[in-house]
Every structure is written in C-alpha cells, then in structure tokens.
Amino acid sequence: MPDAGDTPGEGLPVDADAADERGGCGASGLSRREVLRRAGVAGAVTLGGVVLGREALTASEVGPATGYPHPSTTGASAWPGPRAGDVATAGGPQPPTLACTVADPGTGAASAAAASPDGGRAVEPAESAVASSTGGQHGRYGHGVAAPTSLRADHLDAVTYPPAVDGRPGVTRTYDLPVTARQVEVADGAVVEAWTYAGSVPGPILRATEGDRLRIRMANHTSHAHNVHLHGRHDPAMDGWEPIPPGSEFTYEVVAEPFGLHPYHCHTAPIAEHIGRGLYGAMIIDPPGGRPPAHEVVLVLGGWDLDGDGRNEVVAFNGVAGAYHRFPIRVPVGELVRVYVVNLLEHDPVASFHLHAQTFDLYRSGTSLEPDEHTDLVALTQGERAILEFRLPEPGRYMFHPHQSRLAERGAMGWFAAV
Ligand SMILES: [Cu+2]
What we know:
The chain is mainly beta. It has helices at 16-21, 32-39, 59-62, 108-114, 131-134, 157-160, 271-276, 323-326, 405-408, and strands spanning 51-52, 127-128, 172-176, 179-187, 190-197, 206-209, 213-219, 229-230, 249-255, 260-265, 280-286, 295-304, 314-317, 329-331, 337-343, 350-355, 360-364, 373-375, 377-381, 385-390, 396-401, 414-418. It has 9 helices and 22 strands. The chain has a 6-stranded mixed β-sheet with strand order 13-12-15-20-17-18, with no helix packed on it. A 5-stranded mixed β-sheet has the order 14-22-21-16-19. The structure holds copper (II) ion.
C-alpha cells in the first residue's frame, strides 16, 4: 500500500460516512455533495462500501497461464484494435467546466463484483464486496476514488497495449486524431465532459520506426481551438503550437525521430485545461530493428480536476481511476515486460512510477538502448517519460503507483498479475 497521505488525515482509513462526504468528486476538502451542487447536479449520493482486497494472489486465483490478450512484439495478431465504444461522434456544445455526476447510488459494491467477468485479462477484482465483513471501516481504496462500476476488463485495451511493430522501416504512417468532445466516466461517480483525440483519453498510441514519415490528420470537431504538439525532433513548422480553429483541420507531417518514448498533447491555451480535459497521448518511436520481444504496456498518467479548483481530484493511469486495480494487468511469469510510462499530469508538478517487489531497467525517454539505471522508482516531471523493463519471477500481484501518496490514493494505483 502507499504510505499515508501527505496531508494530515489523508490516506488513513475512513468510515463509510466520511467516504461518502469525501468521495471521488471532491477529495480536496470539498464534499462530493458540494461538488455536485456547484455542478448543478441533483440527487443523493452514496458510495458503495468496497475495500481494498487481497494484496497477493496465487496463480490459481488469477487463472491459467494462457490467453494473454495483450500483444507483444512477437504477437501482433493479439492486438485487439480500436473498439467501437472508443470512438465518439463529433461535436456538441462545450460546457463551461467539468461536470461531475453520480453513479447509481448504493450499488457500487454489487456492481463492482458483477463487472468483473473472467474473460480477457480480467482477474478477480482486487476490490470486492467485503465491506460488510469488515464493518466498512476501511472504506474503499483511495478516498473513494475507485474505478467506475461499469468498467469492463477490456475497456482500456486500446490505450494499454501498443500496436505491434510491423518491421517495415521507412514507410509513411498515417494516424487520424479527430478532436471530439464526449462524456467519460473517469471514476466511480465522476463523469466529465472530456476533450479527446479519436474518442479516447489518452489518445491513440502512435507508433513508428525511427525514420518513418508520420502523417497526423487532426480535424477539430469541437467549438474550441485545439492542436497536436509532438515531442521529439521535427520541422518547427510542424510543431503544433498554432491553434486549429473549430471546424478546421490540419495535417502534421514529420520524420519520426529520435527513437524513444514521446508524448503528444494539445498546446492551445489555457494548456492546463486542454491537457487536463484529455488531449494527450503517447508516441512510441522504435529504434531501427526494434527492441527485444516483450509484453508491452503503455501507462499514461493523467489527472482530472473535477471542480475547477486547479487540483486533481482524480489521478489515473490511462484515464480511468483504479482501472488496473480492478483489473490487474496480466503478464506471464518470467517473461520480459516493457512498460512505457508517460507523465501528463497537469497541476501536480512531479509524479513518479514505483513498482513493488521487483526492480527494473530504466531507459529515460527511451532514447538509448542501454539502461540508465536499475531501480524500483523513477521520478517524472510534467511531460517526462521512461521505458521500464523487468521480469516478474513469481506468480502473484505486484503493485504499481506514483510514490506520491496523494496521487496514488486518487486512483493511480494498479497491479501486474504474474501468472
Ligand atoms: Cu486543446
């Protein structure tokens, strides 16, 4: 578990009533009811009393060691591809601030259990409806910032597992990143009016081999100006800081370089709002010849300022609080795992990535094939990123989270399940 919070009282067990008041929409001293009142959302609020579940599973508990649904550099056929639900229709009026609405009151625990089928990579939820057996005195994980009860095991696959390397260098790769507005449930009881690239937060994982031509078509279907700013090295005329007006489109064309892991994001002012509402993603540029085969995962850290106070009430890997707590990421015991971690938090200047029970080779920005360090923690400022490589030698659950407890406890905690 993360350490106790950095604010007195944070991170400590809370009772159900306190969790109700300090739930996912208003963890920074503003009660959920107050957030809802300000957002103009009526209705009573009750949090399901689920608690953090077992901290370790045996191999039999997480299922047989087959059917890893995630692709590796040797398993291109496993790539699930975009899912229909990830693509939103364009347009619609933009609300003035992020809205926060309420999940089905009082049914969180039961719904959480029902939303964890054993298909795909799902393992038994770490959260379980055991509040009654403990009297609910511990509340749920992280101030009530838990995964939406409707979350499915495969919901984030498209932004978790990168497309496989196809081994064809020197080609032109075209990505469509239409900017749309849509509602996204980012935590249990928190629905925001997000801005998205191609319907998802984070946006699609862009991937190319160094030297490829990258063509990125951005059509702005919202009523605000936006753009696509790529990190890395390119023609400054294609840098993406110039606003693309509503209803317009632009095609960026760059040579993919240098190899490494680079973020992309909207660079239209106020930038904190444009990134904070979801306009960011990860771009993997592979070295010529690729990297060694591995089971690959992309984890983009982002935040949601639900009440417009300049603080993140929800912090999440790949957009949804607690997603990998509810559905741990399966990896096979003993095989190479490569994690692409990107920090695109606004408001919190520094984050980090910490892996429990194992250490990793650290490649800062991924721009070298030699590791910079061997450690269990990497600090990441805003926009910073790293590639981590490790093997998990024993079956079980290995926790990961930012070591800043305030961030971890707002939804940015998950597990690798070695099976
Ligand atoms: Cu923007």
